Amino acid sequence: MSGVNTDVLGEKIVEKLKSIFDPEIPVDIYELGLIYDVFVNEKHDVKILMTLTSPNCPVAETLPVEVEEKVRSIDEVRNAEVEITFDPPWTQDMMSEEAKLELGFL
């Protein structure tokens, strides 16, 4: 496990998160602004604080599991846990400029 600092691991995690797409919107969950925070401790345990576009999101059950599995698939990650929050609630303002451009909001 040694040799990879948490910043490099954080970048790998973000890269992995950018491979996960919201099924209703053709933009990845990171650019959509659904990821609020990524915590990595010195033991390479990862905790991801994220939201969904709405509490009734059709993937509310499966998306957090997919996020955990994909992050856990990174060799240096020991464990991954996703916590869902709706505080603050997601809005279109949380999307990156890239996502807004992709969806025609700019």
From TrEMBL:
Q: Which residues cross the membrane?
A: none
Q: Which SUPFAM superfamilies match?
A: Fe-S cluster assembly (FSCA) domain-like
| Entry-linked InterPro entries | Fe-S_Maturation_MIP18, FSCA_dom_sf, MIP18-like, SUF_FeS_clus_asmbl-assoc
One short Pfam name that applies is FeS_assembly_P
Ranges of residues in domain MIP18 family-like:
11-83
Q: What is this protein called?
A: SUF system Fe-S cluster assembly protein
Taxonomic source organism? Namhaeicola litoreus
